[in-house]
Design brief:
- This protein is α+β, with helices and mostly antiparallel strands.
- The chain has helices spanning about 10-15, 30-40, 45-50, 95-100, 130-145, 175-195, 245-255, 260-275, 275-280, 320-335; strands spanning about 1-5, 20-25, 55, 60, 70-75, 85-90, 110-115, 120-125, 150-155, 160, 165-175, 195-200, 230-240, 290-300, 305-315, 345-355, 360.
- The protein has three domains: about 1-75, Beta-grasp domain (Ubiquitin-like (UB roll), Roll); about 85-200, Aldehyde Oxidoreductase, domain 3 (Alpha-Beta Complex); about 230-365, Alpha-Beta Plaits, CATH 3.30.70.
- The strands form four sheets. The protein has a five-stranded mixed β-sheet. Strands 14-15-13-16-17 form a five-stranded antiparallel β-sheet, with helices on one face.
- Strand 14 and strand 15 (about 305-315) form a beta hairpin.
Length: about 375
């Protein structure tokens, strides 16, 4: 049988014609027609990587639809400004496919985010797929409107994702790079926060909503990290000490009754980081490779900002070491200055970022401290 095929946009450009005819066997489907198109010079690459839709006699149909002699088959590439590509699939992800779906002649910048499995042999992903696709589509539409994007797309893989393979792809295009970067960042952040997709290391039980330091009986335990791979770990934390301006000036001058306040606080913080496992019952003793502590003083506001960082190459993170260092630095400042002022306050102890292990994390910059230590 013979069907008439209509081609549009880049398909028309590659084929060099808006229409062509295909001779197909009786009982052939729209999928068979697409396969036949893909075998033609200039069309194979495009047909293979674009998320195409098909219409028969001006009605959208599935690719399994049977064709008949004389049918008009329209092959429709992604429509600029149309619904975003939002897919949850057990198959391998395609960067070419998502990039093609956001291609636009009005786009001056295209950003692709690719999240891959690292540090472990594989990760298992489970999803409420129907809701996940709907939520991803909603997030992409919101980002497109908010950041004036030309187009956006996302694919998320479920099932087992081996080491080095992508588990999620997000692509956006926009007239300018600032909008493209901002849109891609918000899209992946919202997908991670809101979409019902869960991951576990292959072979482990899902731990969403569970506390890793409790066993099945609810008893405290130290987490067994012996099977985890060694990786570079880094964390930063901060704390704030508030006092009167005169006390802050005394600290800056170094003429507190007890001597060098910040120098002493730095040594105390480093010592505390090295002994975190003695202070926090279920923390692992870590071979720290580096601890750094910096201070920023706003004398007029009476505020000292503490920034502490810790680093190791081990099987678990150094968040507690960084936070312990910041906390002990703050307490040491209080101890060194309480003779000048009893009403000193300590606050704002929090983790700023961590890297290494299964995932990285960074506190939103809009949530950051008022003054960044130098």
């Amino acid at each position: 049988m013979r069907v008439r095929v209509l081609l549009f946009a880049m398909l028309r450009q590659r084929a060099g014609t808006p229409t062509l005819e295909l001779d197909l066997p009786e009982g052939a489907t729209a999928a068979d027609a697409l396969a036949a198109l893909g075998s033609r010079d200039g069309l194979g690459e495009v047909v293979g990587r674009l998320p195409l839709r098909v219409a028969v006699n001006r009605e959208y149909v599935s690719e399994s639809t049977a064709l008949a002699t004389g049918d008009e088959l329209a092959v429709i590439p992604p429509v600029s400004g149309g619904a975003p590509l939002a897919s949850v699939t057990s198959g391998s992800l395609s960067a070419d496919r998502v990039l093609a779906s956001v291609a636009s002649p009005a786009a001056g910048a295209t950003v692709l985010f690719m999240g891959t499995t690292r540090d472990v042999a594989s990760l298992d992903y489970e999803a409420y797929s129907e809701m996940a696709e709907q939520r991803i589509a909603g997030i992409l539409e919101h980002c497109r409107e908010r950041h004036a994007l030309e187009a956006c797309a996302a694919e998320h893989r479920i099932g087992t994702v081996p080491l080095g393979e992508p588990s999620v792809l997000v692509a956006v295009s926009a007239p300018h790079r600032a909008e493209a970067f901002a849109g891609a960042r918000e899209a992946i952040d919202q997908i991670k926060e809101e979409v019902p997709i869960w991951k576990t290391e292959a072979g482990e039980d899902a731990s969403v909503g569970e506390l890793p330091h409790l066993n099945s009986a609810g008893e405290a335990r130290m987490v067994d990290v012996s099977e985890k791979p060694v990786s570079e770990r880094h964390a930063r934390a901060e704390a704030t000490v508030r006092m009167g301006p005169e006390t802050a000036r005394a600290v800056a001058r170094g003429d507190s009754f007890k001597g060098d306040v910040l120098g002493t606080a730095r040594i105390a913080a480093i010592q505390a980081a090295k002994r975190t496992a003695e202070l926090i019952p279920l923390a692992h003793p870590l071979p720290l490779t580096h601890v750094e502590v910096d201070f920023g003083i706003d004398q007029d506001a009476g505020r000292i900002e503490i920034l502490a960082g810790a680093r190791t190459a081990y099987q678990t993170g150094v968040e507690m070491e960084a936070m312990t260092a910041a906390a002990i630095a703050a307490l040491t400042i209080y101890d060194m200055t309480k003779g000048l002022e009893r009403g000193i306050e300590i606050g704002g102890l929090r983790l700023l970022e961590k890297s290494g292990g299964r995932s990285d994390w960074r506190r939103d910059t809009a949530d950051s401290a008022e003054t960044e230590p130098s």
